[in-house]
Structure formats: C-alpha cells, structure tokens
Design goal:
Layout (H helix, E strand, L loop, with lengths): L4 E6 L9 E6 L3 E7 L9 E4 L3 E4 L5 E3 L2 H26 L6 E6 L8 H18 L3 E9 L5 E9 L9 H8 L4 E5 L6 H6 L13 H6 L12 E3 L9 E4 H7 L7 E9 L2 E12 L3
Antiparallel strand pairs: 1-13, 2-3, 2-12, 3-14, 4-5, 5-6, 7-9, 7-10, 8-9, 8-11, 13-14
C-alpha cells in the first residue's frame, strides 16, 4: 500500500478570528486545535480487520505490510499520548495530594497482559487501604522489553497524601518501587508525555526517541494508559478563534505548530495546535 497522504510540520499558521477551534480547558493549560477545512474528503480508506483496508473511492482491497502496521501502531500511540496529556492536565496540578509512583519487576516481565493484571491486583489492595485515591496508569517497556508501570495518584479529598515506601513495596510485591511528589511544571501533561511523543532532528538520539522506538513491544490494540473512574475526561468546547484569543487575554501561545496534509504533494488541509497558559 502506497502512502496517499503526507503530513508535514510547518511554522504556525495565522488563523482568522472567525475560524472555529476545538478548545480544551484545564487548570494550568488551555489547548486549542484548529482545522483549516472542516470537510475536505481526505478519509478515503476504511479499515477492514487488523491487516487490511478498502479504498472507498475505488473499492480496492489493500493489505498492510509489516511496516505499515507499525505506522498504524505509531499513529495510535501518538493519539493516545495526546489524549493522555489532556487528561493529566485536567486532573493534576502538583498539589500535595498528588504523587507519582513507579512499579518495577525484580525478574523480567515480558508479558503485557500479565503486567496489566498485576497492576489491577495492586490497585485493589491500594484502594482498600486508601479509598479516596484515583489513578492514571501508564505501562511502559524498558529497552530490554521488560515492562514497568508508572502511576499518577491523587487523593480526591485534597489532603496531604503520604504513603510509606515499605507499605507501597509490600502492596506491589514484584520488585522495586519509587514514590515522589510531582515536579514543578505548568504543563504536567507535556512533562509526562514528552518521552512518548517526541521528535528530534539532531544526530544524537535523545532518551525520548530511544523510548519511542520501544513501541514494537506493545501488542495490537494495546491500551497505553488506563484511568480509574474518578478521573475526569476532557470535553472540548467549540468556539471561534477570536473568542479563544479573548479567553486567553490575547497572550501568545507557549507552544504552537501547524501540520499540513498533502495528497500527492498538493496541500489539502492543515491543522494548527496551540497551548496557552491559563492565567484565569
């Protein structure tokens, strides 16, 4: 299957005030996504099973190569990281009631499903002891292929949350554990997701890029993250870009870029992503 569309990151586009934007609000960050053309007929392909799709304009049945399956997994991974960033920003602000823990294995754990089940058992014990807590769980492979687990935890009563290291270690029971306060950051979502959604044009690959290459360890249809029921999910608000500028008090974005979408080298659409500090 040949590529029908190409995406390219370009300098941030100038957006007219009447253009509609999808806006995500969180305590520290306001994020906006603006699509230049709301309907440009670029969705030509419909997925059929795990390894094929149909070109809806021609009826052609197309099987994916191994490399294209990897590209599909990378796209899924990137979308999940974007969703996760927004969820973290909505739910975590660096309060004393919030903690970041890491759970590891003393022996190699190469089975994604077993690691997921181990976390469920751990959380059942943890929740019994700390009933007011909620979590966001991120399952990540090490370079060796052995899984470890990152967990953002918050006490919804907003009280100073404290867990003894030996208690956490006993509840986990599979290896070493770490617990620490959230680092100072105005954008916690970006801080925690950077390693999964980074690009680097330098000759020396960063740690983030090396971690990004571990996507092969994830099974098909994997869940990059899971959340407990008490974690809020972001709900976008649609407004004009002029309204967005008034909302952020006409400040410049702290981060912004535009992706163009081309069909046979002809640009057919563009999507602009912006993040603003929430000064309200």
């Amino acid at each position: 299957m040949s590529k029908e569309f190409q995406t390219k990151k370009v300098p941030t586009a100038v957006i007219p005030d009447d253009k509609l934007s999808k806006v995500y609000l969180s305590p520290n960050i306001i994020e906006a996504v603006t699509v230049d053309k709301r309907s440009c007929n670029i969705r030509k392909f419909k997925r059929v099973g795990k390894n094929a799709c149909v070109n809806m304009s021609t009826g052609e049945y197309i099987e994916f190569s191994k490399n294209e399956n990897l590209q599909s997994k990378q796209a899924h991974f990137k979308k999940a990281a974007n969703d996760l960033r927004r969820i973290i920003n909505l739910n975590f602000i660096g309060d004393c009631s919030e903690k970041f823990i890491t759970l590891t294995y003393c022996n190699r754990m190469e089975d994604y499903n077993n690691a997921s089940e181990d976390f469920k058992k751990f959380w059942s014990l943890f929740k019994y002891r700390y009933p007011n807590c909620e979590y966001i769980r991120i399952l990540e492979p090490q370079e060796s292929g052995s899984w470890h687990i990152h967990v953002l935890i918050k006490d919804k009563t907003k009280k100073n949350f404290y867990v003894k290291h030996e208690v956490l270690s006993s509840l986990w029971g599979h290896g070493k554990v770490w617990i620490k306060n959230l680092p100072f950051s105005e954008n916690f979502g970006a801080y925690f997701c950077a390693q999964f959604n980074s690009t680097d044009n330098s000759n020396e690959e960063s740690k983030a890029i090396q971690k990004g290459k571990r996507i092969d360890y994830y099974p098909s249809n994997f869940k990059f993250y899971t959340c407990s029921k008490g974690i809020e999910k972001p709900k976008p608000i649609v407004m004009s870009h002029g309204e967005l500028k008034r909302l952020v008090n006409y400040q410049e974005p702290c981060y912004a870029y535009t992706n163009t979408i081309a069909d046979n080298d002809v640009v057919v659409n563009s999507i602009t992503f912006e993040q603003y500090l929430n000064a309200v």
